[in-house]
Amino acid sequence: MGDLTLTKTRMKEGVWEGLLRRDGDGDAPPEITVTLDEQPISGVEVIPDQAGGWALRVAVPVAAIADGVQTFLIRDKAANEKLGSFTLIAGEALDDDIRAEIDLLRAELDMLKRAFRRHCLETM
Fold this sequence. Notes:
The protein is of the alpha+beta class. The chain has one helix and eight strands, in the order ββββββββα. The strands form two sheets. The protein has a four-stranded antiparallel sheet with strand order 1-2-6-5, with no helix packed on it. It is elongated. The mean pLDDT is 88.
């Protein structure tokens, strides 16, 4: 097992960001590969931070933004170990997604609340 720990910080403007920390000794920046469909992607940056770790930035390729589920795997190249992953979900795949169902239920609940309040006002 490797000595690197990856913690996601955010995804903003098409760039996934995380923090890398090394548990053991060593100051050498880690070699990180990110793959999509087992193909390495470009736009991966490992930047030293002030806390002794590294900021990892992964620019999501425009070609990866498509209908369906796209899963990116983040690996430590030296240890050949998976550190983490992130997923993009778009288009038709969302029709069956539970989060989309919850959003629809919230919208229907809001509609029912408005109708109920209107009914209460009219019957007073």
